[in-house]
Design goal:
Number of strands: 10
Oligomer: single chain
Low-confidence stretches: none
Distance between the termini: 47 Å
Shape: elongated
Largest sheet: 5 strands, parallel
Strand order of the largest sheet: 3-2-4-1-5
Strand content: 15-25%
Number of helices: 8
CATH class of the largest domain: Alpha Beta
CATH architecture of the largest domain: 3-Layer(aba) Sandwich
Structural class: alpha/beta
Mean pLDDT: 95
Length: 222
């Protein structure tokens, strides 16, 4: 029995690897964070597996049912909305369950796109060591989060949505006003944009444009 952890494009469908395509065409079952988005990708490549929902609201009972479904068909793939499953993504709960409770199931990574490594690769900042911090909290522990960002000596990477990006840049400017940063918007998509400068400078650049999309923030080391 085998579970493939399949990275999917973060925007440009041309970034789907040949190996990922091969797996998605072969497996009878795909677990997906958003079945509608995944169904579009599968239709694009002509794959026709069953698609089952598995996301951060999935209960332990639903995860166990997913394991049972995998055991029944023998092979399955896990995908997320975009990028690599398990990286700031609820798929890691499913992988943990299989890794710790079902040693008879082999887990195999099918690497590919990741907004984290994509943003780091164009940042120009040192990447021999970096700290990835996921999404900034909405309310609880938000101040603590940005205090940790400011205290981290190596390159820092974290994610933000369009709804809070201006507020987040203000928070970064408050705790680390002099550090250089890269703000990557809509990576690999038609409106891909990279903003560089101090947090205040990047915020000013962003305000001059129509703000849409998904963002990756890379902060230079101290």
């Amino acid at each position: 029995m085998k579970l493939y952890i399949v990275a999917t494009p973060i925007g440009n469908l041309g970034d789907l690897t040949a190996r990922a395509r091969e797996v998605l065409l072969a497996v009878p079952l795909v677990f997906a964070e958003d079945t509608r988005m995944t169904s579009k990708l599968l239709a694009h490549i002509g794959a026709t597996p069953s698609v089952a929902s598995l996301h951060h609201h999935s209960t332990p009972q639903e995860i166990q049912r997913a394991v049972a479904s995998l055991q029944k068909v023998g092979e399955a793939a896990l995908v997320t909305d975009a990028g690599t499953p398990g990286i700031s993504d609820p798929g890691n709960f499913f992988v943990h369950t299989i890794a710790t409770q079902h040693p008879e199931i082999e887990i195999s990574p099918i690497p590919g796109a990741s907004c984290v490594t994509a943003a780091l690769s164009v940042s120009g900042f040192p990447t021999d060591r970096f700290r990835f911090m996921g999404f900034a909290p909405h309310k609880n522990k938000r101040n603590k989060f940005f205090d940790e960002v400011a205290a981290t000596e190596e390159t820092v990477v974290f994610l933000e949505s369009v709804h809070r990006i201006s507020k987040t840049l203000q928070d970064v400017a408050r705790v680390a006003p002099a550090r250089q940063m890269l703000l990557a918007r809509e990576l690999t998509k038609i409106h891909e944009t990279l903003y560089r400068g101090t947090p205040a400078e990047v915020l000013s650049q962003l305000k001059a444009e129509e703000t849409r999309g998904e963002f990756v923030i890379v902060l230079a080391p101290q």
